[in-house]
Amino acid sequence: MKDEKKFNTQKLVVMAIMTAIVVLLQILAILTRPLLPLFSITLVLMPIVIGAALIGVGAGGWLGFVFGVAVLFSGDANVFLAINPAGTVITVLAKGALAGFAAGLAYKILSVKSKTLGAIATAVICPIVNTGIFTLGSYVFFYDTLSEWGIAEGFTSVAAFLFIVMIGINFIIELGLNIVLCPAIIRLIQYGQKTFVENK
């Protein structure tokens, strides 16, 4: 019982640290925005991936939710909040929470066969779900606005404007970063799991 309590305490500590890292990385993204005005790249997905793999599906969902809250409070979604506040809150919170949840679920399922495969799949699935939910939310809540913005930029298709201008390069860079950093992510997950086992 004492060992189990210690194990759960360790998980809570890791969860708290990962939560703080998510918030700090989102703040850092806002502070560096003037240096990269054309891009809105987030590094927050990496601690979400690691937390989801180390602690579980619920932790992934929580860390993704925290990411969404940080985005809302940081002002990163202000343009959309001015157009449709409810739609913005739903989209931002859902994309973060579901990305973290999906990452945790992918690791839980695939790590049974191979922990490395699980870690790679988790790192890839997280940005895909994050961007996918953003795309879905954009269509549901902001279609008319995106259509107007697209026409102003010379696009006749909302899908083309959304993928080329608003998602395109950002998604590719975020996914690429997760893939490139996969070896480091795998090592961090393995180290964390080893620590949990040794102190259980």
Can you walk through the features of this model?
With 200 residues, this protein is an all-alpha fold. The chain has one domain: Orthogonal Bundle (Arp2/3 complex 21 kDa subunit ARPC3), CATH 1.10.1760. Helices cover 85% and strands 0% of the residues. Helix 1 packs parallel to helix 3 and helix 3 runs antiparallel to helix 5. The chain is globular and about 55 Å long. The termini are close together. The mean pLDDT is 80.
Task: Describe the structure using short key phrases.
200 residues; mainly alpha; Arp2/3 complex 21 kDa subunit ARPC3
Give the terminus-to-terminus CA distance: 10 Å
Sheet with most strands: none
Averaged pLDDT: 80
The appropriate CATH architecture is: Orthogonal Bundle
Strand content: under 5%
CATH hierarchy class name: Mainly Alpha
> Quick one: overall form?
globular
The number of helices is 8
Order of helices and strands: HHHHHHHH
